[in-house]
Amino acid sequence: MLGTSGTIYYEPKGCALIIAPWNYPFNLAIGPLVSALAAGLHSDIKAFRADSQYLKLNQRMIEELFDPSEVAVFQGESDVAQELLKLPF
């Protein structure tokens, strides 16, 4: 239309909860994280075990690369996962 203009508004569509299992925790957490970030979602990651070397590496990597408003890593056992599942994702 002559005399008009369009505007694009980039807005996130929600939040994603990624619960990584005990087998292949890096692949099964980072793969969905890439997709969620590409879609503009805030992402929360909960790993299987709080004492794993993976979680320490993953948390350090995410803290260095992302703002806490974009990606958060949660530590803890199944009680933490149960509380996260009560939230609206």
Overall outline: elongated
Q: Specify the structural class.
A: alpha/beta
Helix content: 25-40%
Gyration radius (Cα, Å) is 16 Å
- Order of strands, main sheet, comes to 1-2-3
Order of helices and strands: EHEHEH
> Number of helix segments?
3
Question: Whole-number average pLDDT?
Answer: 85
Q: What is the tally of beta strands?
A: 3
Provide the number of structural domains: 1
Query: What share of the residues does DSSP label as strand, in percent?
Result: 15-25%
- Major sheet: size, sense and barrel closure? 3 strands, parallel
Low-confidence stretches: none
Roughly how many Å apart are the termini? 39 Å
Task: Tell me what you see in this structure.
Helix content is 37%, strand content 16%. It has 89 residues and is of the alpha/beta class. It has one domain (15-85). Helix 2 (53-65) links the parallel strand 2 and strand 3 (71-74). It is elongated.
Write the layout of secondary structure elements.
Blueprint (H helix, E strand, L loop, with lengths): L14 E5 L7 H12 L3 E5 L6 H13 L5 E4 L3 H8 L4
Parallel strand pairs: 1-2, 2-3
Give a quick precis of the structure.
This protein has helices at residues 27-38, 53-65, 78-85; strands at 15-19, 42-46, 71-74. With 89 residues, it is α/β, with parallel strands linked by helices.
Question: What brief labels describe this structure?
Answer:
three-stranded parallel beta sheet, elongated, 3 strands, 3 helices, alpha/beta, about 90 residues
